[in-house]
Every structure is written in structure tokens, then in C-alpha cells.
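Sequence only, no structure available. Ideas?
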Amino acid sequence: MKIDTHIHITPPDIIKDWKKIGQREPYFNLLSATPHNKFATYETVANHLEEEGFDKGVVFGFSFQDMGLCRYVNDYTMEAVKQYPDKFIGFMTMPAHHKDLEKEIIRCYEGGLRGIGELFPEGQNLQLEGLHHTALKACCMNYNLPVLLHANELVGHEYAGKTSVSQKSIETFVRNHQEIPIILAHFGGGLLFYELMKEIRSSFKNVYYDTAAAVFLYEPTIYKVIREIGILDKLLFGSDYPLLPISRYEEGLNILKEEEKKAVMGGNALKLFETCHIL
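Reply:
I predicted one. C-alpha cells follow.
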């Protein structure tokens, strides 16, 4: 089974009015105004997955600061799951410090969504060190919800959306939420390399990493390095579509052995989602 674990979908009216919405959502505006940005409706995503021969995709809306906008894109994701129940796995978005967090999680879970994310720590003004005091952890444990968290490397070239959230902050979040599966986007901003440290490997037992935007970030040899570290079983394929089409990852992934490639492109995600009773 082939599974793409990182796909953004956007309601048509938000696509139409993104500039207006961006006036009160700085991070959304920053990403939307870039030359690389593209928007995709869930119909477009379903067609893309079909064209690329993928069985399933994890879809979610933008994680706004405003809970009202998050509810709106969550409604759209629930609609997507209802229209394509065999194709989509829906995640929910929300400001994780909001007083109505638990209420929104329950609403979305009852509406068919089975994960949280992609959360944007800096873009949503989330203090990761303090999130264990919210209802997030309890709800994730109660409903078996994995969390997809944005992470980026703090060195190298600049690009829109590159934040200053430290690896230490993400590590603290992981340590405070070891009971729930956490998917760190974009290779965890390089945190996966620290799994060579025994204490990180121990506290990160429930952590996974996705390949989103790999084409822009690393040389293909990163897959060999991950193999040598011994955590290839924790790597999940994520395209970051519509930023990049699935096909752009083929060349890099071909550096892996066929069985390893199959695991990254779906087998690892299948095991995780079966554990969470999502599949």
C-alpha cells in the first residue's frame, strides 16, 4: 500500500480570498504569497493520488491562529473524507492552546478525522514547552490521535515559512507527549540525526519523520544516512502536495533498496495507522 502522509487541501472560497484572510493571518499570508505556493481542493488531490498510483493520503487544512477558520477548514476535511472514504485519512487543525480545543477535537473525531496537524508552532504562536498543560495530550490518548508537527532546520538557506523554533523546544514537546505518536514534518528539522544519542532514541520511541519538501532540503543520500542511523522504519513518505507532486520524490527514493522504498512509501505509515486503529 502506498500512503502519502502530508497533503494540504484548501476550500475553494479560501483559495479565492486568500489575500483577504492573509491580512489577519500573517503566517498564512507569508506562505501563500510565495512563488512556490499552490492551492489544491480535495478533488484535485484525489485525482493526483490516483494518477500517481497511491492508495491513500493524509489530508488537512491550514492551521490558522483563529479557531473559527480552523473549524471551517476542518469542516472541509470532514467533507473530503466523506466523499472519498477509501482514499483520504483526515487530520484536524486548531490552535493547540485554545480553550475550546477539547470540544473541537471531539467534534472532528465524531466527524471522521483521525489525527491532529500540521501544527505550526511559530505560525500559531504555540509555546511547545507549555502544551502538556492543555487538553491536547489527554485527547490524543483518549482517541488514539497522532500529531503532525511542523519542524525545520535552523541552518542553511532561507525560505518563506522557515521559523526559529528550536530543536530543544521540539524535544521538550516530545518528552512531554511520549505516550502519543508524533510525526515530525520535514525530517524533523534534522532532529532525526540526534537519534544517534541514546537518550534521544529512548524518548523518541513514538516519533516518526516525514519526507515533506525533501527535494528542496537535502541530497538523496539522506535516505542512506537514515538507514545507517537505524530509523528507516520511522520514515514516512510525505509529499507536501501541492507544493510538490509525488513524482518529484521518485529519483531520491530510488537510492533505497526496493523493500526499503516500499516501507517508506507506505508500509511504515500502514503499521503506525493500524496501531492507532485508523486503518
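The beta strands are 3-8, 56-60, 88-90, 116-119, 147-149, 182-184, 207-210, 235-236.
Hope that gets you unstuck.
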